[in-house]
Design a protein that fits this description.
The complex is a heterodimer of chains A (301) and B (175). Chain A is α/β, with parallel strands linked by helices and 301 residues long. Helices cover 50% and strands 12% of the residues of chain A. The relative contact order of chain A is 0.12. The chains are: A alpha/beta (301), B alpha/beta (175). At the A-B interface, helix 5, helix 13 and helix 14 of A face helix 4, helix 5, helix 6 and helix 7 of B.
Amino acid sequence: MLKNDRMRHQFKEDVMSGNIVRMMVAPDALAAKIAESYGAKAVFSAGYATSASALAMPDRGISDFGIALERCREIINAVNIPVFADADTGYGDLDNVKRTVESYEAIGASGIFIEDQVWPKRCGHMDGKKIEPTEVLEEKIKIAKAARKHDDFLIMSRTDARAVYGLNDAIERSRRYQAAGADLIFIEAPQSSAELEKIHEAFPNTPMMANMIEDGKTPLTKTEDLQRLGFNIVVHPNAMTYTQTYAEEQLVKTLQRDGTTKAYKDHMITFPKFNDFVGLDQVNARDAEYAPEKMERYMTE
Amino acid sequence: MTLTNIFSNSTNQIIPAAGDGQTINALDEADFPAILLDGTLTTQTLLGENNQGLLSLSEYAKFLRDMHLKATSPLIADLQSGFGSPLNTYYAAQELERSGGSTLLLNDQLYPSHSIDQPQTTTPEDLLGKTRAAKDGLENPETQLWIKLEGLWDYGITGAWQRISYLEKAVPMPF
């Protein structure tokens, strides 16, 4: 089985197993490789982190399809664990949704979510969101399902209606998105543990995702507690971005203050350890494998 | 199914080359066994230049992915001269396969490749290294690697046969 097929199949099995899949959002390929090396079973490529990493901009619908797709592709190519993707609103109308699905499936994503915000969207935990009529995402879900080539490529509906119309409306919308074909359900930004519980009660047999944003609308909840509440996926969308930003701020402050990075060195990985982490020895070995002197053995008449 | 298999089952043995979406759409509707996404033609489309050596791997691969989403015909990807050394060729072959190339076409020019009648060619050792590297980079056993020898003007037919005999020893595969 080829890598893309294997990753999609593995992700679907994990999500449907009844256990919970925990994913960090990786801002870039290096972050994804770090998550993988410390035991992550899957990673997420999502808008807030990509917008920050690629553009140094907030998640306000400025980062587009091309940027998001390419970042996700870089992440997929760097790891051997499944990668799930944030496809925002599908980036336009139904033709755009079709292209979005075909493209993410072709690069090897294990699935995507599509949401019901008005474009340009906002991070789900920001104020001022505007929501499309339910029919808009219903039609997008139907097109997305028709466009995918493999059933293992999972389509998740995301509604942002909680903040605008309340939890009951968000649940009702999600029922319609599920009826339209969504494999997985994501109700963004519930505001309490009781709301998380109510979401699970509304969809007891459907894999659900919870989103844990530091300083967001939803209380930070341990993975095992979310599993007890019936969630099958938990995502940590901003933690790596915030950690990178904090560490780099401290580094720059140190350099500005001291004129050298020496005092910050204890917070860095070392030159040899980093080279080892990104596989320098393996690359050098491969380079040596095709050296001219090694090819001479095939040059006999 | 490999492109060689497709050839053996097809009455049409012509592979047209293209470098833009409209031409690929038109060719895709005709009965060709495959379409070559040619490096020079793609360079003309994307850069407005005739020199394929100006087009980087990432620029070409992005266009290949877009065309792969559209075309139903198998696409032959132009691996040029591997976009660098044998090490670059390994990663370039990976990239072009996952971008939708069902067959990769590697030439024996010096890097960077040029779109000229009498290009400078690389050494047999370098060609063998690149060929083995490209083969090692491929994941799908149905993806084929084809070699394009471009130095007849220089090494002559004798030199070409010599390179073929070396390649047959270095990489057990159908050419």
